[in-house]
């Protein structure tokens, strides 16, 4: 399985949306250089309020552009970076990957998927009804979170639009993604 980086984004402050850039630099064990969520410990405000010393399993946020396509078809004006992601992808079913999957982004950067992004009500501030649009239910009633995945950085590297994404699955048994 492989895909492509569509866009890269970062924000030095805790803004919900992140502006697109020509490139971002990933730092092992920290996240996206210059991004407000960079660090060994968690930087997301709601998580800091609960425990500022917990490890940062949300160093990099990835969203598949196929979700953007779905949301645009439903009438939402969504583009890369709008929902706070650092890396927008195409061609990789991010939500179907197991925990521990490694993504090689471009020539050197490697991230490891830690879990699902748990969407928050701030989405409705961007577009009314967006929170509901990124949630779904399976036939058995299980909640499906579609707002992307979170990862940690294993290997430094620069990531740019048009970079390839190589997927390396962990050894079985695979664990399905849970919110982090």
UniProtKB/TrEMBL annotation:
UniProt-listed Pfam families: MOSC
**Recorded GO MF terms:** catalytic activity; molybdenum ion binding; pyridoxal phosphate binding
Top-level taxon of origin: Bacteria
Describe the location of the MOSC domain by residue ranges.
Answer: 18-168
PROSITE patterns, sorted: MOSC (PS51340)
For this protein, the record's InterPro entries field holds: MoCF_Sase_C, MOSC_domain, Pyrv_Knase-like_insert_dom_sf
- Which PANTHER family does the annotation name? METAL-SULFUR CLUSTER BIOSYNTHESIS PROTEINS YUAD-RELATED, MOSC DOMAIN-CONTAINING PROTEIN
Q: What is this protein called?
A: MOSC domain-containing protein
Organism field: Actinokineospora globicatena
């Amino acid at each position: 399985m492989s895909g492509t980086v569509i866009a890269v984004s970062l924000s030095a402050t805790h803004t919900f949306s992140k502006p697109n850039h020509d490139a971002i630099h990933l730092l092992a064990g920290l996240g996206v250089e210059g991004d407000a969520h960079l660090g060994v410990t968690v930087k997301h405000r709601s998580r800091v309020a609960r425990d500022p010393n917990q490890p940062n399993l949300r160093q990099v946020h990835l969203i598949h552009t196929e979700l953007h396509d779905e949301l645009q078809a439903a009438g939402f004006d969504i583009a890369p970076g709008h929902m706070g992601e650092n890396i927008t992808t195409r061609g990789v079913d991010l939500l179907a990957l197991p925990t521990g999957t490694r993504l090689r982004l471009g020539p050197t950067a490697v991230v490891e998927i830690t879990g699902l992004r748990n969407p928050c009500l701030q989405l409705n501030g961007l577009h009314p009804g967006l929170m509901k649009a990124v949630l779904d239910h399976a036939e058995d009633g299980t909640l499906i979170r579609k707002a992307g995945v979170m990862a940690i950085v294993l290997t430094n590297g620069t990531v740019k639009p048009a970079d390839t994404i190589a997927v390396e699955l962990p050894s079985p048994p695979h664990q399905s993604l849970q919110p982090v």
